[in-house]
Amino acid sequence: xxxxxxxxxxxxxxxxxxxxxxxxxxxxxxxxxxxxxxxxxxxxxxxxxxxxxxxxxxxxxxxxxxxxxxxxxxxxxxxxxxxxxxxxxxxxxxxxxxxxxxxxxxxxxxxxxxxxxxxxxxxxxxxxxxxxxxxxxxxxxxxxxxxxxxxxxxxxxxxxxxxxxxxxxxxxxxxxxxxxxxxxxxxxxxxxxxxxxxxxxxxxxxxxxxxxxxxxxxxx
Amino acid sequence: xxxxxxxxxxxxxxxxxxxxxxxxxxxxxxxxxxxxxxxxxxxxxxxxxxxxxxxxxxxxxxxxxxxxxxxxxxxxxxxxxxxxxxxxxxxxxxxxxxxxxxxxxxxxxxxxxxxxxxxxxxxxxxxxxxxxxxxxxxxxxxxxxxxxxxxxxxxxxxxxxxxxxxxxxxxxxxxxxxxxxxxxxxxxxxxx
Lengths: 220, 192
Fold this sequence. Notes:
The structure holds two protein chains of two kinds.
Chain A: H1 3-10, H2 20-33, H3 36-39, H4 46-61, H5 69-78, H6 84-104, E1 111-118, E2 126-133, E3 138-145, E4 154-161, E5 167-173, E6 179-183, E7 192-199, E8 210-215, E9 217-218
Helix pairs in contact in A: 4-6, 5-6
Chain B: H1 3-10, H2 14-36, H3 39-56, H4 66-88, H5 110-124, H6 128-139, H7 144-151, H8 155-172
């Protein structure tokens, strides 16, 4: 069997007799080429959320936990670069600074955004979310489309989740068209946003019925 | 990958994190999607994998190839996300998607995810137009005629481009015996 025959077979063209082992090998490749995971595309915000997650992890790793931005800036300027580990902490602070200053923009508030996509439970649903840092916490505005109003014992609940899987509820609502919620945890460390459909049955845990999911990333 | 980038990655430098993401993020996402079969969960796993890689970067041996190391981390992170979902989910089976990997007992093996990784890497090395043609043919299962209609080009052009694209793909994945006088493609790992 020539290389041209192998290519023709791989491309789905009819070819003559094939060695069974070669056919199996090429069939395996054809199966892989049809595998959805080969063609799945991550969302455009993933790079930003990863940078934020690494920054958050780096901040957590710093002595004393997350470093306040302004303090981090001063420390970074004064700290002598004496060791790689120390440099790592400085870089972590630099990440936090970069996120806060570069993305917040001077006196403007730090903002994150997310485009939420519908899950299998609500494939036509979408939502735009903006998270704005304030002295009171993070103001979360959500404009949803493609979801019905829920009431009469049912409601929606919004959640932020950390890369480590810690789930924090940030509010409940009935009508998803325009909602304002508040979060006491930052999207820098809790970048995953989910909206679940809940039943008012006294159980405060997530129902697991996610209708919208997405990842917050720094606003441009 | 540039050692300075790796050093920057280990230090949490945002530019270095983005550089590593640019080089390997898509592939790590592919591995995570292979395990989880869900875009949101795969993104979550990819993110967790990057954080884990950052934490482990000081233990990374720079004499070894970075890709397999990251692929292993991505697979592990995806399996952990899968387990978290299995523990935390309260959906009834009636609500579950039949294709949900939570309904499958075992995650893909290391060899299986690495095969997907290699195929995706080979596709990334193709001309984007050729990669799209391969996608239409194998993933969307379109015929040459349908591809010609979709792309607005003659069927003959589709056939010639298809042959060229598959030849390049087969070369990249070591599926050709080729001319022994020419440099050979890297041997393809056998799946387990």
